[in-house]
Amino acid sequence: MALALDGMRVLEIAQVMSGPFCGLLLADMGADVIKVEKPDGDDSRRMAPPTINGESAAFMAINRNKRGLCIDLKTDEGKDILKRLAAASDVLIENFRPGTMDNLELGYADLAPINPALIYCSISGFGQTGPYRERGGFDLVAQAMSGLMSITGNKDQPPVKVGVPIADLNAGIYACYAILAAYIHRLKTGHGQRIDTSLLEAGLAYTLWESASLFATGENPPPMGSAHRLSAPYQAFRAADGYLTIGAANQRNWEKLCCVIGREDLLADPRFATNADRTRNQSELAEILESVFITRPVAQWLSDLDRAGVPAGPVYNFEQVYNDPQVLDRDMVVRVEHPRAGMTRLIGIPVKLSETPGQIRRPAPILGQHTDEILQEIGLSSSMIQSLREKKVVF
Predict the structure, then answer these.
(1) Which residue, among 71, 106, 76, has the nearest Cα to 393 in the 3D structure?
(2) pLDDT tens digits, residue range 48-107?
(3) Are 268 and 250 within 8 A, CB to CB?
(4) Labelling 221: which of 158, 313, 346, 354 has CA 20 to 30 A away?
(5) Catalytic residue among 32, 42, 90, 168
(6) What is the DSSP letter of 306?
(7) Cα–Cα distances in Å, from 123 out to 128, 137, 162?
(8) Is 168 a catalytic residue?
(9) Which domains does the chain possess?
(10) Pairing label, strands 234-238, 51-52
(11) Residue 96: helix, strand or coil by DSSP?
(12) 322-371 confidence digits (pLDDT tens)
């Protein structure tokens, strides 16, 4: 079956998270993503354990479906190879500090004349312009400076970051979205363009309700734990043997919830008459509801809530996630054979296309795995490649 991005060639000169995640999203939909690594490889290859047969689990998770080219871009021959590849590619992704690629003579101004149709995507900590452009970009810093850490966790507690590197990941998603928009424009006009996005903006873009609240009231929104800023009850509650989440935000679900838990009296309480009332009195409501939920196990509550049609769910750890029948039915666990690590599990593809579904076709490459193959595709002979290897240009 055809893949949606069959025929798109992407050069991924990026490491760790934001750029590689963007490349993964494109690769899953069929793009030929060539991961260009430095001689000692992507930094995520050396991240802390776990490893599988010496291979980084972190690297394997985010670099599936890609081909691997290992090359020293600080050499003239390495730069020439990259330029030849750029001339035959649709997209280039890089996530270095602004100016790094320019200093290598591989910036947009260097490559656009070689390939005017090239879509050149740069992901950095703070963007290509502005007073912070030269600062290094890290997810933790972006979460802090975008306001995300100020609204995560519980009130009067130390700052807490989101449990996943959400600024990194969202930067990758926004980069992918921009690349596809630019690709559509290129199909119409034949022209490529420069894309500039950052971790700071990617984190900030997620604060829609919080920013709207500040703009409307002038007050900083506080952290609220698992509670919702605009709806109640909509949060996690402690039961007898764990936690469950309740999403009874609209009036009908609120009424059904009160019936399920045997607290119909709450329907007549003026503090909880409307969603606005319940949100305003969220703390009191949560205390009342938790005093009920703590009397029975999670499974019993979920069974009753499900029968009544009240949105609810358990709070899983990851082992429980990957044993859930819905997760398994939706193919969100995929097994792939890695040349060194053996059979490994990966997260499945979260979007399902009816005509051109994404596929996990290959594991993450070992360092330089496809170097010869890729160089031969741009016309280099075996003897030329061997000479480059001896000169430590390619690996």
Answers:
(1) 71
(2) 779 988 899 999 999 999 999 999 999 999 999 999 999 999 999 999 999 999 999 999
(3) no
(4) 313
(5) 168
(6) H
(7) 9, 9, 20
(8) yes
(9) 9-206+327-390 (3.40.50.10540), 234-315 (3.30.1540.10)
(10) unpaired
(11) coil
(12) 999 999 999 999 999 999 999 999 999 999 999 999 999 999 999 999 99
Structure token pair of residue 303: 């069974």
Contact 62, 24 (CB under 8 A): yes
Q: Are 167 and 207 in contact (CB under 8 A)?
A: no
**Residues counted in the chain:** 395
Of the candidates 123, 196, 121, 199, the residue with the CA atom closest to the CA atom of residue 166: 199
Q: Which two tokens stand for residue 205?
A: 């873009």
362 Rama class: left (phi>0) / alpha (psi -120 to 50) / beta: beta
Give the whole-angstrom CA distance, residue 44 versus residue 155.
34
CA 66 distance to own-chain centroid? 17
- Quote the pTM value: 0.95
Instruction: Look up residue 221 and give its DSSP letter.
Output: P
User: What CA–CA distance (Å, rounded) separates 239 from 236?
Assistant: 10
